[in-house]
Design brief:
The complex is a heterotrimer of chains A (about 375), B (about 375) and C (about 280). With about 375 residues, chain A is α+β, with helices and mostly antiparallel strands. Chain A folds into two domains: about 220 residues, P-loop containing nucleotide triphosphate hydrolases (Rossmann fold); about 130 residues, Beta Barrel (OB fold (Dihydrolipoamide Acetyltransferase, E2P)). In chain A, the strands form four sheets. In chain A, strands 6-7-8-3-9-10 form a six-stranded mixed sheet, with helices on both faces. With about 375 residues, chain B is of the alpha+beta class. Chain B has nine helices and 22 strands. Chain B has two domains: about 240 residues, P-loop containing nucleotide triphosphate hydrolases (Rossmann fold, 3-Layer(aba) Sandwich); about 130 residues, Nucleic acid-binding proteins (OB fold (Dihydrolipoamide Acetyltransferase, E2P), Beta Barrel). In chain B, the strands form four sheets. A seven-stranded antiparallel sheet of chain B has the order 13-12-11-14-20-21-22. A six-stranded mixed sheet of chain B has the order 6-7-8-3-9-10, with helices on both faces. Helices cover about 25% and strands about 35% of the residues of chain B. Chain C contains 13 helices and four strands. Chain C has a two-stranded antiparallel ribbon. Chain C has a two-stranded antiparallel sheet with strand order 3-4. In chain C, a hairpin with a 2-residue loop joins strand 3 and strand 4. The chains are: A alpha+beta (about 375), B alpha+beta (about 375), C mainly alpha (about 280). At the A-B interface, helix 5, helix 6 and strand 16 of A face helix 5, helix 6, helix 7, strand 15 and strand 16 of B.
């Protein structure tokens, strides 16, 4: 039963403040993904928790007790480093054994512990190798095994998949949650990859310039990003942004983007006449029929295949660039083709133009629930 | 200004006279049309960088020839080959500002200062560098240095642009934006470019055609779509695609008008033979064992209904915004499916999974592709 | 990996040969001299053909030098022993002091750390004669003149800065994350220092120790001023061969051969470490 709490944690290097009064409460067994661009202070935060540096202000509480005066070796923390940080002069076995060795465990107990975790991570056949004789994937697993083997109360994972190839990164992303669940540790997972953050985090804490901009479930962050910056960090291709004027139309409201008019969800009546920043994610920019009212007319400037989708870079007549990753059906809509696109009202996110914060519609409902199995998902492809 | 590129049986052999010569690149031949963007893609050590360095002139060609615009250049010094190159290690001149670094590339073109400024500003705007132009390399981030290096290559007029991991140092978000920009820029100026990358997302997004390399040997040279739909062999099939292709070793059994692909006792995929192409059924009938590959995007799932399709038990379900990645226990192994939007299954639930026959990739056990969906490998 | 033309290859061979001759010829000539009598050595023109003799070595080892004007006592073996004691002890003391200090300078940024580190290095720039005269007076007053301890202390001026700066570069090359990982695994700072930091810096420590040993061994001026006959190392002891009846070139040559033999052997043995250690240190330090 381990909780971790940060209270007003502030870290300065010389005159530069790298972490500004961070507050975060992590529940027992919870995985929180610390996500942000490089230089945001993610690694510094982990170092503070591990005891490799001290905050100038604030408290770090483990199960309610302040950790500041506790030496790193006494914190019951496990950590996997981005660069693996394996001990180059020791075998993989000795690397993994280090935490057990520190507790003066019996030789057989150490061997048992190391072999058990090595089997789980499928590196039992390379335990005798020196780190330089391991592949990147094996190094990464060795580092992970070393972090896990002592069953630490708090597990700090500093972008552990950054330096492994794409295929392995994907496999590990699928595998990690199960592994972590088995250990029951409370986990902070630092990453620069929003997919990892969404897939692994029970919650995500978005860290930018030393501040938590938003802390919430993946749903909250993706569907209701607190700021334009958060919206831009999640999603590939990046969210499309337009300047738009909010106006009444019939019974509801519309956002006027150039010559196009996009319907808005109810709750924005207070914005009439103001100019806002309008965001639509590329997967929500859908092809519109020729007759669709208010659609955005654009030219396909470039085709960018992205994994299993075909992304199109579109340019409006006014010169605004934006992306769509939607399927344009049988018609190819190749480079140079003219298309009409639109977006559903629930997929439109509005931001204040000055503060760049999201504007919640009045009476906003809770997060949109996931669709049940088989209803929305490729129903047409299910074979009979 | 824009030229074709022809590499003819290019070899890079180290220690050629030794007992065990090392083939960094072996009999590599491709033809690139003027204005085409080509990516050399592969894991580290596959020979892609050696190939690029041979084109640039930093490595000698051990055997073979390289021609740009019909002119053989592989014996010329780098400066006379008419190529511009952006380096992975950015290699800017430290005492010059980013603006001077980029403008430096224009020295040989002897332009007026107004024209130089205009060109520098143009690429700076393209690469989001305008704000940083008057700073020195040491005071800007790795990503900004890399963009300046890219700018220095693009600002020049050259017959061919060589881009070595041009975006490796950039933040993912900016990388996504610049991919689109860069492609548009190359297109609109009709430039021929060769890009070296280990990142297939980048190769797919930028390149008209991709040369997949492994062990110094060209595995396949084709458009991104063709690599995905008709991989020449199992290596290309599993290398291209994120998440990677699911692969299973199966024994085909054909009886009573039914094609059954089995792993031991379990039927992984079963089809009505009438729904499959005769040629493909015939092919399967002749093989005792094949490897089938299934792209995660081609896996269809539905609630377990006992009406066909093999059952699979969800092991993990990860939502990443525009897609869900679903991993399920299937046969002796697992099957990964990517589904649009957010999928609501949780681990432990049972599903029916199936793959339409036209989406099956069939490989011989030793690697070469035998058939893709309705077509035998090698057919148009 | 550019190929070279035959001409280039030939030129390179010639240049390397010239450099080798330039550096190795004196050693070769000394070796020849050590097997010659003074008369052979002084013959004009010099000749490669002579009757080899072991007299020079015998004289050094027995400690008796027969010259035209009588028999001279030589303390060469004592000198050799002194050299060993002084160099070994100086390096050992320096290692004990400089390795932890190098670690501190590499890892911790404390007030004036750069200035202190630089001051220590600057001892190597100061002309030894500048510090020698005052030191002699102090040492005589506190009774350290002509003692091993006094000499070892002064030798720290040679060995300590060298070890400090080479080893510091090595410690800086070790990723702090590796050390942190060991701490987080539950080990104390001391265990980390001895199990991680020291072993990883070992090539650098070995190279630095070797190099400072050679420098200490070759030192002349400190020992010349601060030590009298019974504490003199070989470098100073060789002066005894400049006698009233002439310079004993044969014995000098034999003494040189014997005294460079240990350092040469050490250097050859640890060549790999030396080159690697020095070049790494040079890049970082």
């Amino acid at each position: 039963m381990t909780t971790l709490e940060l209270q007003n944690v502030t870290k300065r290097y010389g005159k530069e403040t790298v972490l500004h009064g961070l507050d975060l409460a992590v529940a027992d067994g919870e995985t929180v993904a610390i996500f942000g661009p490089s230089g945001a202070g993610k690694t510094v935060l982990l170092r503070l928790i591990a005891g490799m540096a001290e905050p100038e202000e604030g408290e770090i509480l483990m199960d309610g007790e302040d950790l500041i005066d506790v030496a790193p070796e006494d914190r019951s923390v496990g950590m996997a480093f981005q660069n693996f940080a394996l001990f180059p002069h020791m075998s993989a076995f000795d690397n993994i054994a280090a935490p057990l060795d520190a507790r003066r465990a019996k030789r057989e107990a150490i061997a048992d512990g190391v072999h058990a975790i090595a089997r789980l991570l499928k590196i039992d056949h390379v335990l005798g190798h020196a780190p330089r004789a391991l592949s990147n994937g094996q190094k990464q697993r060795t580092a992970l095994a070393r972090a896990l083997v002592g069953a630490p109360k708090i597990l700090l994972l500093d972008d552990p998949l950054r330096n492994v190839d794409a295929k392995l990164r994907f496999e590990m992303r699928l595998e990690l949650p199960r592994l972590l669940e088995g250990f029951g540790s409370t986990v902070l997972y630092v990453t620069q990859d929003y997919r990892e953050a969404m897939a692994l985090g029970d919650r995500i804490a978005v860290l930018m310039d030393g501040r938590f901009i938003q802390v919430g479930t993946p749903e909250e962050i993706y569907l209701t990003p607190a700021t334009v910056a958060v919206a831009e960090l999640f999603g590939d291709p990046v969210i499309n942004l337009f300047d738009a004027r909010v106006e009444p139309s019939g019974g509801g409201s519309v956002a006027v983007v150039g010559s196009a008019r996009l319907a808005l969800s109810p709750g924005y009546a207070n914005l009439y006449g103001t100019t806002v920043t309008l965001g639509i994610r590329p997967e929500n920019v859908a092809p519109a029929g020729a007759g669709t009212a208010g659609a955005i007319a654009a030219r396909v400037a470039a085709l960018l295949p992205l994994n299993d989708r075909l992304v199109r870079l579109l340019v409006t007549d006014e010169g605004a660039e934006f992306y769509t990753s939607r399927d344009f059906g049988g018609e190819t809509a190749g480079e140079g083709a003219r298309v009409n696109v639109t977006a559903a009202s629930q997929d439109v996110i509005l931001f204040d133009k000055a503060s760049r914060r999201r504007i919640a519609p009045e009476g906003e409902a809770a997060v949109i629930p996931a669709a049940p199995v088989g209803r929305e998902h490729r129903a047409g492809r299910v074979s009979a | 200004m824009t030229a074709s590129v022809v590499l003819k049986t290019v070899n890079k052999i180290y220690a050629a006279k030794a007992k065990n010569p090392i083939y960094a690149v072996r009999d590599f031949s491709i033809e690139i049309a003027p204005g085409e963007i080509v990516a050399l893609l592969g894991s580290s050590g596959c020979g892609k960088t050696s190939t690029l360095r041979m084109i640039a002139g930093f490595e000698e060609v051990t055997k073979g020839s390289i021609a740009i615009g019909g002119r053989e250049i592989h014996m010329l010094p780098p400066a006379r080959r008419g190529v511009a190159m952006a380096f992975e290690g950015y290699s800017l001149y430290p005492p010059l500002t980013l603006r001077q670094n980029i403008a430096f590339a224009l020295k040989s073109e002897r332009l007026g200062s107004a024209e130089t400024d205009r060109r520098v500003e143009e690429v700076a705007k393209l690469l989001e560098l305008t704000k940083h132009l008057d700073r020195y390399p040491a005071t800007v981030s790795a990503g900004q240095q890399q963009r300046a290096s890219l700018g220095r290559a693009l600002v020049r007029k050259a017959d061919l642009y060589l881009l070595d991991e041009p975006m490796g140092q950039l933040e993912p978000q900016l990388r996504a934006i610049l991919r689109g920009r860069l492609k548009r820029y190359l297109r609109e100026h009709g430039l021929t470019a060769i890009l070296v990358t280990h990142d297939q997302t980048e190769a797919n997004a930028l390149a008209d055609r991709i040369a997949v390399m492994e062990g110094g040997v060209l595995q396949q040279f084709a458009s991104p779509a063709e690599l995905k739909e008709k991989p020449a062999n199992l290596y290309v099939g599993t290398f291209i695609g994120e998440p990677p292709m699911n692969v299973y070793r199966v024994e085909p059994q054909i009886a009573d008008g039914r094609v059954s692909l089995r792993a031991g006792e379990t039927e992984l995929f079963g089809y009505d033979a009438a729904r499959m192409q005769d040629a493909v059924v015939g092919l399967l009938a002749r093989q005792s064992s094949v490897v089938v590959g299934v792209r995660p995007a081609d896996v269809a799932v539905s609630p377990a209904n006992g009406r066909g399709g093999a059952t699979a038990k969800i092991v993990s379900n990860q939502w990443i915004g525009d897609q869900s990645h679903l991993e399920s226990a299937f046969g002796d192994g697992v099957i990964v499916a990517t589904l649009d939007g957010r999928f609501a299954g949780s681990s432990g639930e049972t599903l029916s999974v199936s793959v339409p026959p036209e989406k099956l990739h069939i490989f011989a056990e030793d690697g070469p592709a035998l058939a893709h969906g309705r077509h035998l490998a090698g057919e148009p | 990996m550019q190929h070279m033309s035959t001409g280039e290859r030939l030129l390179r061979g010639v240049l390397i040969t010239l450099a080798l001759i330039f550096f190795l010829f004196p050693i070769f000539w000394i070796l020849l001299m050590s097997f010659q009598t003074n008369a052979d050595i002084l013959r004009i023109p010099p000749s490669l053909f002579f009757t080899p003799t072991l007299d020079n070595y015998v004289a050094l080892i027995t400690g008796e030098l027969k010259t035209a004007s009588g028999v001279l006592k030589l303390a060469f073996m004592q000198n050799l022993f002194n050299s060993f004691i002084l160099s070994t002890a100086s390096v050992a003391l320096s290692l004990v002091l400089a390795v932890p200090a190098a670690y501190a300078f590499a890892r911790y940024k404390f007030r004036f750390s750069e200035d202190i580190a630089f001051t220590l290095l600057s001892f190597k720039f100061a002309p030894p004669l500048l510090v020698l005269l005052p030191l002699t007076i102090y040492f005589q007053q506190i009774g350290l003149a002509n003692t091993y301890i006094g000499l070892i202390w002064v030798y720290q001026l040679i060995t300590l800065p060298l070890i400090l700066w080479i080893v510091r570069g090595y410690f800086e090359d070790i990723s702090p994350d590796i050390e942190h990982a060991y701490r987080i695994a539950g080990h104390s700072w001391a265990k980390m220092f001895f199990r991680i930091s020291i072993p990883l810096a070992r090539p650098g420590i070995a190279a630095a120790a070797l190099l400072s040993f050679i420098f200490a061994w070759n030192n002349f001026v400190f020992a010349l001023v601060l030590a009298s006959a019974d504490k003199q190392p070989v470098t100073v002891g060789a002066l005894a061969f400049v006698t009233a009846s002439g310079i004993q070139y044969g014995q000098i040559a034999a003494a040189v051969v014997i005294s460079i033999a240990p350092t040469l052997a050490l250097a050859l043995f640890a060549q790999r470490y030396l080159v690697e250690g020095l070049s790494l240190g040079a890049v970082k330090g």
